[in-house]
Amino acid sequence: MQNATLFYIDGRWIEPAEPRRIPVVNPSTELAFADVSIGSSADVDRAVAAARRAFDGFSDTTVAARIALLRRILAGFDARRDELARIVSMEMGAPLAFAMSAQVASGPNHINEMIRVLESFQFDEQQGRTLVAKEPIGVCALITPWNWPINQVICKVAPALAAGCTMVLKPSEIAPLSAIIMAEIFHEAGVPAGVFNLVNGDGPGVGAALAAHPEVDMVSITGSTRAGIQVAKAAADTVKRVAQELGGKSPNIFLPDAEFKRCTDLGVARCFSNSGQSCSAATRLLVPADRHDEIASHARAAAATYKVGLPDVEGTVLGPLVNAAQFDKVQRLIKTGIAEGATLITGGPGRPEGLDRGYFVRPTIFGNVRPNMAIAREEIFGPVLVIMPYGSEDEAVAIANDTPYGLSAYVQGADLARARRVARRIRAGNVHINYPPIDRRAPFGGYKQSGNGREWGAWGLNEFLEVKAIMGYAA
């Protein structure tokens, strides 16, 4: 990859201000397979200046021109799908089939939704003599994570472009190569110079400089709650908008009339997908106490179907965790769960049999988990499911809400009216009743320490817009 050690600033691939590099490690082999450059505040200054220069011209483009630009980006994605899937699989460990069907596909899916939104979006609305205008907020800093590297970049870049904003992207230094390919796609699609800029780097060196920069009007970050707090503090002095999509510890409530076998199979999938490395993963399974053992048996059988292995081997469902730090964290929490007295239903510490290298984890399920246990409270970010018994609907809701997070939640039950009532009581930004299909028109974001702001569809577009009231606009 010829541009791996360069930054994309003002429409060109350029050398960093300071020559510093770090390796990109394949989590399946624990070996480096590429290097990327690490940026500094000087690189941030150059990128922000380019975005500022480009803002006046790009913010004045027509909606039709922005739709055409998004369509050209779609075509670029289609031409490089295989390459993107291979790179995502290598940099963060997703099985190749999953990388293609979910990781890579998420980008075009969100672009298509943004095109649909733009085709009917009302940027101006007249209210009597007043015109309410929605205008691009300005220069945006986009800070994205490693777990869904394409999805999270596009969930920010597409609405920023649609709004008429200019931007500087800092992808995760753990999985940065897919973002470099996307920058190449944007360039080939004709994104004007300075509108999109990419500076690789870490949080202290690049993320903090972007968040504090006086010429940045908005920061959109997806990451840990810790990182979100640091960005918000850095942004506070310049009173810029901060949109945060942060951590989660999502409950999945089985009501007494749920179809337990089917719901358990799908519940395990909602936890284990992407090796459990999703902020909205359904990691806390809340079940009627008198059905706990039955559901635990179903969960054990479901977990046995999840083949852990090398991402490029056919039939692999779960790849490795992303790096040594994440592997060590998950191993520590699994051991903590055992020490705290939870029932180990399947899995446990250590690598799966036959995998002596790579950050592979045994799919693990705990039963009889109490709300005060660490595995019930901390975001594990691995294929670890905890089953928590409850005695009444009120207790189930109380357990579900007993968390500093509030990103996603799940409710299963045959009585839809009851499931709706329970869904209303859960303090989370997204609640899924009976495992519905994904709806990219819906707002995605959280309550409490899961962040603020919303992504996807028109909700995501509005995050990048300022609202202006022009009174006396009409005679």
From TrEMBL:
CDD domains: ALDH_CddD_SSP0762. Keywords: Oxidoreductase. Gene3D superfamilies: Aldehyde Dehydrogenase, Chain A, domain 1, Aldehyde Dehydrogenase, Chain A, domain 2. Belongs to the aldehyde dehydrogenase family. This is aldehyde dehydrogenase (NAD(+)). GO terms for molecular function: aldehyde dehydrogenase (NAD+) activity. It catalyses: an aldehyde + NAD(+) + H2O = a carboxylate + NADH + 2 H(+). Pfam families: Aldedh. It is an enzyme of class 1 (oxidoreductase). Residues 13-470 form the Aldehyde dehydrogenase domain. InterPro entries: Ald_DH/histidinol_DH (IPR016161), Ald_DH_C (IPR016163), Ald_DH_CS_CYS (IPR016160), Ald_DH_N (IPR016162), Aldehyde_DH_dom (IPR015590). It comes from Phreatobacter stygius. PROSITE patterns: ALDEHYDE_DEHYDR_CYS. Its EC number is 1.2.1.3.
